[in-house]
Design a protein that fits this description.
single chain, alpha+beta, Alpha-Beta Plaits, 6 helices, 7 strands
Amino acid sequence: MGQKVYPGRYTTENNEDVVVFIIGMRINKRWAFRKWFPVFKAMPGMIRELYENKDELGFLSMESFYGLRTTIMISYWRSTDDLLAYARGAKHLAAWREFNQKVGDNDAVGIYHETYSVPKGSYESVYGNMPLFGLAKAKKNRLITPEIRTAKKRLSAVKTNSSN
């Protein structure tokens, strides 16, 4: 059974700050399996931990994508403090130590991350005929009404409501 599709156009609430964290790896040398596979296999345990402890950790949701050489995980967090606290946590530190021991500066595998701290009212989204995805999975999925039909209206809705 597939995910429930929400027919029509939806958006998300943008009345709270959100942190978007993008992390991934790139296999630079496919034949160096012993170098990149430990990096690849470290993620499922951390993802499981995040979903099992969402409220406590401040983790909201995530999406994952896999290409021929590159993986990417986009995650949404309640705050940068929550994200940084998780980075200092036992499971992440253990994975980071293992990476440094097995890979270090070896160029067989690359890793990357980007962090965006986005203030409330400074982001918007639209989903047409989609299951819960991205921010709509991380935050509240909301039907688009005439008052918020355009991106400009969705972006200004929080500013308008805040000045009342």
